Amino acid sequence: MDSKHTQLEQIATDIREKNVCPDLAMQAHRLVMGDGSVDADIMLIGEAPGKKEDETGLPFVGAAGKFLDQMLEAAGMNRKDVFITSIVKYRPPKNRDPTPAEKAAFLPYLLRQIAIIQPKVIAPLGRHGMEFFLPGVKIGEIHGQPQRMTLDGREVVIMPLFHPAAALYNGKLRQTLIDDFLKIPEVIRELK
Ligand code: URA
């Protein structure tokens, strides 16, 4: 069996070869696959790359990413302990929301990433990352509450969180996200 790195690289190759979301691909500079440990216990799933991510090819490197780094540090983790990605892997023009068709087109590739990394905890950041795992559920009602589910025959815990970009400049939401984030180490500990 190929190494996890090789298998993850193959996903990027397949996205290019299958010409997934050609309209997005044409306007974006980079495919942003994700970053972090391929053996991470926790996988964070955002929405789609923004401007900085599109320039660098790395997830969460703009203002929301800095905030994410602070929360990781406060929770005793850092980027190399986790794996960070997004549901949609090309930047939507002008940072518009990804469409349902775009999210559906990228979902099989996200599921392949999950199958390779096998995280114990999946933390969707915002509703776009969450809706596949917890369909029909509102993030405002379920954030910070770990949900057990079976994915591909494997038990995982889904820890829904607000998106750091949404919470960044909203004092109340910001504190809520920080509080929810700080619960993650305990959720992981309980699983071990
Ligand atoms: N927002 C996301 O959802 N993903 C990124 O990589 C950056 C901002």
Structure characterization notes:
- The chain has 192 residues and is of the alpha/beta class.
- It has a single domain, classed as Uracil-DNA Glycosylase, subunit E, CATH 3.40.470.10.
- The chain has helices spanning 4-17, 22-27, 51-56, 63-74, 100-117, 127-130, 139-142, 164-167, 171-181, 184-191, and strands at residues 35-36, 42-46, 83-86, 121-124, 147-151, 154-158.
- Strand 5 and strand 6 form a beta hairpin.
- Helix 1 runs antiparallel to helix 5.
- The chain starts with a helix and ends with a helix.
- It binds uracil.
- Uracil binds at residues 46-50, 53, 59-60, 64, 86, 165.
Task: Determine the CATH topology.
Answer: Uracil-DNA Glycosylase, subunit E
Attached small molecules? uracil
Low-confidence stretches are none
Task: Indicate the overall shape.
Answer: globular
What average pLDDT do the residues reach?
96
Structure summary, number of beta strands: 6
Query: How do the SSEs run, as a string of H and E?
Result: HHEEHHEHEHHEEHHH
Number of helices: 10
